[in-house]
Amino acid sequence: MEIEDQTHLREVLLKFLGIDESVYLKVGNQSIHARFEEGHSKEDKISAVQYVKFPFSETTLQAFVKGERAELVIDHPNYQARAVIEPATRQSLVEDLTT
User: Fold this and answer.
1) What is the pTM of this model?
2) Is the pLDDT score of 91 beyond 70?
């Protein structure tokens, strides 16, 4: 997400509190909930930069490698988005995940 108007950055960021519970990677019919790096949000504050990991199980990794449909999903009350993982991105991720 990009916040273009920096004049109200704090107010805009506060709308995204709880986003760490709303992001997942869907591979086939399985979902991998994101793990956000600690220390970038509190009950009343959220950082503009977040670091996220997706803990693949062996089953989900194999499905991803085999090419099952994969998409990144954000399902937050103040922001919803979906993005299919395109082939070039998938290939790069497969290389990272399997080497």
Assistant:
1) 0.79
2) yes
Give 12: exposed, middle or buried? Use CB within 10 Å, 0-12, 13-18, 19+.
Answer: middle
Report CA 21 to chain centroid distance, whole Å: 10
Q: Please give the structure tokens belonging to residue 9.
A: 């950055």
pLDDT digits (tens, 9 = 90+) for 72-84: 999 999 999 999 9
The type of residue at 68 is E
CA 24 to CA 35: how far, in whole Å? 9
Candidates 47, 48, 50, 46; CA nearest to 34 is 50
Name the CA radius of gyration of the chain, rounded. 15
Integer CA distances (angstroms), 43 to 5, 16, 39, 76, in order: 23, 11, 11, 16
